[in-house]
Inverse folding.
């Protein structure tokens, strides 16, 4: 197992390098001159040239890349000109908020999706299956930002169960119950689509597994049907559900951008959109690399979980 | 094609999706000629008019613009953008996939590595990065969404192309001197197009959603032009005061995406042959029972099967797999049930404990009595408490019948603890003992092994140990040695025989091999076309088979040292049990068949030896 984890970690290095190259190249294609963008169009050519030299933009492209990469490896992601603070500080501040939101939504979608899919498969063509299938279709078709807005209308404005937006109350609050009250609606809105997808795939995986011979063996042993479904069958189905969870984590992280806008959640997604609209390139660059790296790391965790669940995967 | 459409519309949800999408598309197409307000005509005096206002069916927005008009124009834009994005992503992705898959080698390696890198991004990061470069705008959002989805198509299409590139007709084209371009265009592409179209139809909803999302964030269409996403984005600031301005475009996105998804699912299902044949149905906990009459109980025997009828109901067809089969098993006896594949022997065995997969299996008649207690139609909990406890099964292929992810020790412990409330440690001890009983060397060390770590013979020993776990009265062995090689087969048979003697087990032994029956069984029953055609003591049947089928079946067994005999295969095939002929089912393959054999019901006659034949080889 230790060997497998090490191997998997090493194989992530070229992927991470590839990510930095892609991001760097995309950003290098930006038309116009960052120095002009920072100093405004009335800047003197001398000032622009000086700033370019200061930012290292007069170097050839490949050198710029390696300087940028080297700085990043030392924890220096550059400075956001719009916010005038180090990019990494801003990212770390914002990322914890996104992690709370996306992490909660991810746990919700995994647990609810697997339960719904399993129930649906066990009751194939029954009432529960039809009801779940209908809700799932609805769930994967609704834009999460629209769902979030409707939830605000109903649960925050009409029923006043939850606060409209934000992460903490402005006065008082700041403790865990306050966070949970603010978190409930965005986390649910964010998890709906992913829950639908996970439920669908879990249902399919379960149906596939339930026809296998070893399920018949379990029944022939006299194992309770509940244990056949939630033990034997689900355990085997998890082998195909877990990779889907890895992919869904990416979608949850992506969906967080919309939900953060709708609920004014101070996360990294809103930061990125603001940065794009303000053309704050270093912040976009650093944010994208940072999130992508976290996602790669999460996928390693998924692979390790997979190997741990399925002893047939050779290390 | 008409079959496809019929299947598509049989799926009511898909039909609903098609109709809704059709209406929306027609409305979007007709928008320019409909009598609507111009979508960008502002009228600040009429801001936020509610729906059903005069002249404004859906009301107006924050600038007093007519919402219905903006909705239809926005729908038009969203549909066009989603469709264009799907088309671009599909074409570009397919081109990359076809080239990588066809040329293989380095081209493939480098391309797919690049694709993998792109897939390492959560999709929106990439889209945001692209919009950051190109600047906000609908066209740029379209490009971003298309680019982000290219890897999905490239991967799928590459997989399919790799499959095609190694087929004979490609080699033939190459040998005929065709160039790569011509082969790609004339041989590969036509085979890939249907897959691309299906993949596009299932992702187009997703593309509409994604572009709407970018517009919602303000990165897509810029005012005054508005697609559904930016309508929703603009309406957000008035969400609480004028919710209808948000609800109108939101519901439209929901309707479009849902109808596209429903239609996409319908298309996929209609094209999936497994769904059509019902092969994706999951078997229930116990076989469905639908029986009209119950045969009167008879007293003798440990296990009595009476006029059992089990059918498979697939669509309009009914396969009579087991047709009025009666068998009885006494304590300590070994009864062989023999027949070709498809004769119904396994289904008979599985019917005993309600293990026939259902759907499509249904038990439609007869009784199975364990010491007088009828098991057919018994409550599930009763059936479950007897499974493994009094009647245990050994199945054919131990690799697929043992759970691949549980350690064999845990599978044994579970078998014990399901029926007996013993501690885990106690069960563990018994599991080791069971493994020793079935002669697994180093049993204590093997309890931690997974099934894939054992050899086939060892796995089958585990299967037997599991059947013995609760000291059952009856073991039903469904071709337990068929998947094993001959030397291992002999060992397993010897083990079963020894266990039978020692524990007083009754065994129902299912096989297609008369050689095996001769070694193990006291009595034998021969099945053909779902019915018993002959029964009797093994030795007598072997020496003087009465039914012509039995005689031919015995002639199929090769014997060591008798090289001169001709091995006689039975000509023809076993009958399809959904259209059994009248009379004797074997008549079409029988060299002694007369006209009388093809008429009416032929009885199973005799007492100790029974035969279902008008012209038996020997008098029963």
């Amino acid at each position: 197992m230790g060997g497998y984890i090490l191997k998997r970690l090493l194989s992530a290095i070229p992927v991470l390098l590839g990510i930095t190259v892609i991001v760097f190249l995309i950003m290098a294609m930006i038309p116009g001159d960052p120095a002009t963008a920072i100093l405004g169009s009335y800047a003197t050519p001398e000032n622009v040239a000086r700033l370019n030299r200061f930012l290292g933009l007069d170097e050839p492209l490949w050198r710029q890349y390696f300087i940028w990469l080297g700085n990043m490896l030392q924890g220096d992601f550059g400075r956001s000109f719009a916010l005038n603070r180090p990019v990494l500080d801003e990212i770390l501040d914002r990322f914890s908020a996104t992690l709370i939101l996306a992490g909660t939504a991810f746990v919700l979608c995994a647990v609810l999706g697997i339960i719904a899919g399993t129930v649906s498969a066990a009751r194939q063509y029954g009432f529960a299956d039809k009801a779940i299938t209908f809700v799932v279709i609805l769930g994967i078709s609704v834009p999460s930002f629209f769902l979030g807005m409707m939830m605000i209308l109903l649960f925050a404005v009409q029923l006043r169960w939850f606060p409209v937006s934000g992460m903490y109350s402005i006065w008082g609050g700041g403790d865990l119950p306050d966070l949970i009250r603010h978190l409930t609606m965005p986390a649910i809105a964010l998890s709906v689509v992913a829950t639908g997808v996970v439920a669908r795939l879990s249902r399919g995986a379960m149906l596939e597994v339930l026809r296998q011979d070893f399920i018949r063996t379990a029944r022939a042993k006299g194992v309770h049907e509940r244990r056949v479904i939630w033990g034997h069958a689900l355990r085997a189905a998890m082998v195909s559900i877990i990779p889907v969870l890895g992919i869904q984590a990416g979608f949850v992280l992506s969906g967080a951008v919309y939900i953060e806008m709708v609920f004014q959640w101070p996360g990294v997604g809103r930061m990125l959109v603001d940065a794009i609209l303000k053309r704050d390139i270093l912040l976009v660059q650093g944010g994208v690399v940072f999130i992508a790296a976290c996602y790669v790391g999460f996928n390693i965790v998924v692979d390790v979980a997979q190997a741990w669940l399925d002893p047939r995967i050779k290390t | 094609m008409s079959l496809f459409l019929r299947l598509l519309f049989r799926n009511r949800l898909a039909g609903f999706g098609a109709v809704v999408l059709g209406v929306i598309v027609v409305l979007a197409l007709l928008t320019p000629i409909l009598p609507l307000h111009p979508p960008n005509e502002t009228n600040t005096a009429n801001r936020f008019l509610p729906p059903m206002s005069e002249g404004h069916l859906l009301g107006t927005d924050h600038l007093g613009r007519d919402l219905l008009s903006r909705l239809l124009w926005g729908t038009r834009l969203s549909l066009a953008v989603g469709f264009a994005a799907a088309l671009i992503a599909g074409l570009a992705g397919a081109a990359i996939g076809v080239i990588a898959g066809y040329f293989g080698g380095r081209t493939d390696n480098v391309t797919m590595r690049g694709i993998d890198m792109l897939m390492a991004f959560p999709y929106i990061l990439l889209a945001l990065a692209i919009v950051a470069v190109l600047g906000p705008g609908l066209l740029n959002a379209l490009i971003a969404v298309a680019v982000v989805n290219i890897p999905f198509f490239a991967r799928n299409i590459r997989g399919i192309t790799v499959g095609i590139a190694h087929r004979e007709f490609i080699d033939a084209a190459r040998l005929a001197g065709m160039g790569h371009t011509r082969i790609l265009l004339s041989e590969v592409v036509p085979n890939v197009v249907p897959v691309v179209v299906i993949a596009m139809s299932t992702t187009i909803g997703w593309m509409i959603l994604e572009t709407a999302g970018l517009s919602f964030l303000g990165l897509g269409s810029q005012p005054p032009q508005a697609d559904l996403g930016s309508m929703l984005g603009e309406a957000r600031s008035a969400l609480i005061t004028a919710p209808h301005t948000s609800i109108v475009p939101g519901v439209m996105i929901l309707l479009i995406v849902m109808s596209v998804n429903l239609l996409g699912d319908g298309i996929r299902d209609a094209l999936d042959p497994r769904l059509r044949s019902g092969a994706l149905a999951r078997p229930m906990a116990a076989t469905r029972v639908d029986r009209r009459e119950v045969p009167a109980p008879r007293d003798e025997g440990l296990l009595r099967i009476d006029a059992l009828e089990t059918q498979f109901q697939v669509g309009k067809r009914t396969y009579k797999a087991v047709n009025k089969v009666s068998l009885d098993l006494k304590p300590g006896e070994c009864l062989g049930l023999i027949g070709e594949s498809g004769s119904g022997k396994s289904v008979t065995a599985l019917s005993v404990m309600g293990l026939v997969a259902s759907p499509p299996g249904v038990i439609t008649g007869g009784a199975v009595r364990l010491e007088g207690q009828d098991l057919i139609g018994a409550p599930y909990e009763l059936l479950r408490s007897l499974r493994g406890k009094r009647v245990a099964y050994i199945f054919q292929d131990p690799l697929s019948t043992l759970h691949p992810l549980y350690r064999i020790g845990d599978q044994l412990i579970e078998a014990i603890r399901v029926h007996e409330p013993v501690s885990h440690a106690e069960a563990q001890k018994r599991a080791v003992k069971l493994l020793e009983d079935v002669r697994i060397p180093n049993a204590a060390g093997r309890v931690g092994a997974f099934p894939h770590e054992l050899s086939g013979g060892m796995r089958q020993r585990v299967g037997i140990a599991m059947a013995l776990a609760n000291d059952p009265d009856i073991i039903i062995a469904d071709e337990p040695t068929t998947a094993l090689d001959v030397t291992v087969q002999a060992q397993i048979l010897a083990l079963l025989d020894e266990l039978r003697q020692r524990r007083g087990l009754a065994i129902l032994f299912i096989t297609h091999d008369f050689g095996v029956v001769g070694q193990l069984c006291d009595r034998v029953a021969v099945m053909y076309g779902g019915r018993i055609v002959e029964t009797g003591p093994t030795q007598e049947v072997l020496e003087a088979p009465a039914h012509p089928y039995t005689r031919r079946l015995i002639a199929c067994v090769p014997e060591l040292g008798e090289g001169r005999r001709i091995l006689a295969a039975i000509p023809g095939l076993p009958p399809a049990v959904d259209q059994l002929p009248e009379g004797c089912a074997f008549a079409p393959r029988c060299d002694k068949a007369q006209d009388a054999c093809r008429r009416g019901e032929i009885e199973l006659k005799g007492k100790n030896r029974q035969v279902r034949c008008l012209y038996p080889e020997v008098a029963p």
About this structure: Chain B has 22 helices and twelve strands. The two ends of chain B are 57 Å apart (CA to CA). Chain B touches chain A through 80 residues (CB under 8 Å).
